[in-house]
Amino acid sequence: MVNAVKILVADDASFMRTVLKDILKSNGLASDIIEASDGVEAVRQYIQHRPDLVTMDVNMPKADGIQALKGIMKVNPNARVIMVTSVEQKHIVQDAMKSGAKDYIIKPFDKANVGLVLNKVLSAK
Amino acid sequence: MSDNNYREMYVSEALEHVELINQTLLQLEEQPENRSYLDQVFRSAHTIKGMASTMGYDETRELCKNIENIFDNIRNGDEKLTHHLTSALFVCVDLLEQMISDEKLRVDLIPYLKKLENPEDEVEDLHVRESVVTMVSPTIRVKMADLDSLVNLVGELLISKMRLEQTIQEENLDESKKVMTDVNRLISDLQYQSMQIRLVPLDQVFSRFSRTVRDISQKLAKKIKLNMNGSGIELDRSVLDSITDPLLHILRNCVDHGIESTEERMKCGKPEIGNITLTASRKGENIVITIVDDGKGIDSEKVKEKAVDNGIITQEEANKMSHQDAIQLIKSAGLSTAKEVTDVSGRGVGMDVVMSQVEHVGGSVKITSEKGNGTTIVLSLPLSLSIIKGLLVVVAGQRFVLPLSNIITTLKVKPVDIFSLHGIEVIKLQERIIPLIQLGKFLEIENKESDTSKSITIIVIENDGKEHGLIVDNFERNQDIVIKKLDKNESSNLFSNATILPSGQVALVIDPSLIIP
To answer: In CATH, which superfamily holds the domain spanning A5-123?
Structure first.
């Protein structure tokens, strides 16, 4: 178990952000949660708050999750970004991993799986 | 957060996306290859899919997945957004809307999915309903900043209250007065701010109409363009809710009876495509919504004929009636000039229903029309229902509120100025004859005849162009009236609103449309 950290949740649906936020809080993973509702805002929020971890939805307006991921990696090549995707979009995840994403979680969220993935990414050096 | 709260969030956000898909599909009909529109529909379908799968709504997820796939194919050039496909999509989006709103709805998706696959095929069991315009849900999205400033004001008010208590305890009258000025300012800010929160953009409702007009004109094989401009105007949520149906009714009428068929238009030398223009503007304390069509207009002679047939007016009255007055007749109950009942607008309701709904929120309707050149309908609506300017009047020792917007003037007359015409008491006001109503008698709270020795107080009110004088004992002052809606058990035929006066007394609000016959 790692210490609770600052997490940026990027998703265009406030419903999905709330669901994920609730999971992160109940898992005791997040000490502080910042939100972004599009790709551009995600990068901006990353620069402003420098969170320890980002969960990044793939489909977002203005800039999609992949573009935002690349933006964040430019700012900090060591950034921990986890992609949020649906089952059908697994192929996108491979692209994202090449661009520097650390892992992915699948919608609909499985609480235990979210915890596992986040713990894994956070404890990796 | 409880599952119930999740459900609420899901419904409101998913329905927003449904609305967005509807609007974007309409835009795509004009620009079928616009990439950002295609992206938008894809993204909205994808977002709803994600939310539905989180909620465990498998059918909703499945339908969204199919819509998403279609748009992915279109983006990749594997499929084309044809007119038939758009229509099929509209049907599915309607279904989607129902599935989102009604958790218990069970639908066999297969015919719908088949229709999406082969949009040109006639699929049975798939009843293509006309889209139902419903308001999303009785919730309002409030900007965080607006809410913050509201909370801020309440905080300041609390501090001022404590200061006031202290100054009163110290019997420091000067200081108390100063604090009271602050409190006054804070309360009026608070009032403004909370009213602000109730406002929703008119465009939100307007944008839904495009779908309705599209569906009906398609059914009737008419070519119609609906131009809309809400000019960024915002209206109180409750006013907006109550005018959605009337507006829809008017638009249906425009499409069904107003705009001619394409052949007819060509014959008259009019452009092939009919135009309906919906605009809104603000005039003082009112919002004015104008609906203009360039159709065939209203035939005032036909209206008169029908009105005589139905016994609304006599032949004699009809002969004397001006074109403009005759047109206003269509507002009366039981008068529809459309030759036959169609399933588009012939639902047994007419303009009279529109009238009563608009009047119910304190608005008015004005119709002008020129035969052959189209019709203009103007709805005038109050900005808000919750606070109005009103005049306090006294009848038999009781106070009532009259909305200032209906008051023409107040008069004090001598008993000799009142005379009787066909058994009705009237007065003359600038060459106009104004019938009088004894408010006390009318409300059955007073029996005595007015004291003939003293001067009589009359308040001249107007509703739907008709003027009446209300005889009251006295009137007090104009003031802002905070409307409290009476609940069903408390309201009567005459009153549906009340207010609380500074003295703590309750005063009923008189609705002139209910008093004027």
So the answer is: Response regulator (3.40.50.2300)
Residue B374 in domain: yes
Omega of the bond leading into A108 within 30 degrees of 0 (cis): yes
d(CA B326, CA B332): 11
Last residue of a domain, one of B321, B351, B382: B382
The rounded Cα A64 to chain-centroid distance in angstroms is 13
Q: In terms of domains, do B401 and B506 share one?
A: yes
Residue B488 lies in a domain: yes
Characterize the bridge pairing of strands B374-382 and B286-293: antiparallel
Better-predicted residue by pLDDT, B306 or A125: B306
CA A106, A45, A119, B54 torsion: positive or negative? Answer: negative
If DSSP codes are grouped into helix, strand and coil, which group holds residue A78?
Answer: coil
B323, part of any domain: no
Specify whether B368 is located in the same domain as B433: no
Gap between the Cα atoms of B58 and B107, Å rounded:
11
Residue of A nearest to B37 (CA): A61
State how far the alpha carbon of B349 is from the alpha carbons of A102, B7, B245, B354, B377, in Å.
Answer: 63, 36, 12, 9, 17
**pLDDT bracket for residue B299 (50, 70, 90):** confident
H helices present in chain A, as ranges: 14-26, 39-49, 65-75, 90-98, 111-123
Alpha helices per DSSP H over B346-428: 351-360
B135 belongs to a structural domain: no
Task: Please say if the pLDDT value at position B12 is more than 70.
Answer: yes
- Cβ-Cβ contacts under 8 Å for B478 (sequence gap 6 or more): B389, B390, B391, B404
Q: Tell me if A16 and B53 make a contact (CB, 8 A cut-off).
A: no
Q: What is the pLDDT of residues B106-133, one digit of tens each?
A: 888 888 888 888 887 766 555 544 444 4
Distances (CA, A) of A72 to A24, A53, A62, B69: 21, 11, 15, 29
Best of A58, A59, A83, A106 to mutate (most B CBs within 10 Å, chain B): A59
Other beta carbons within 10 Å of B33: 12
Type of residue found at A80: R
Give the A:B interface size as CB pairs under 8 Å. 45
Residue B78 predicted with pLDDT over 60: yes
Give chain B's domain count.
4
Of B197, B212, B231, which one is at a domain's C-terminal end?
B197
B442 and B503 assigned to the same domain: yes
Q: Do B9 and A60 touch (CB under 8 A)?
A: no
Structure confidence by residue, pLDDT tens digits, A60-93: 999 999 999 999 999 999 999 999 998 777 788 8
What range does the domain containing B269 cover? 200-298+337-382
- In this structure, the answer to whether residues B226 and B260 fall within a common structural domain is yes
pLDDT at B135: 42
Residue B51 at interface with chain A, using a CB cutoff of 8 Å? yes
Residue B354 CA to residue B345 CA, distance in Å, equals 12
> Both B15 and B103 in a single domain?
yes
pLDDT value at residue B40: 92
- Check which CATH number belongs to the domain holding B439 and give it: 2.40.50.180
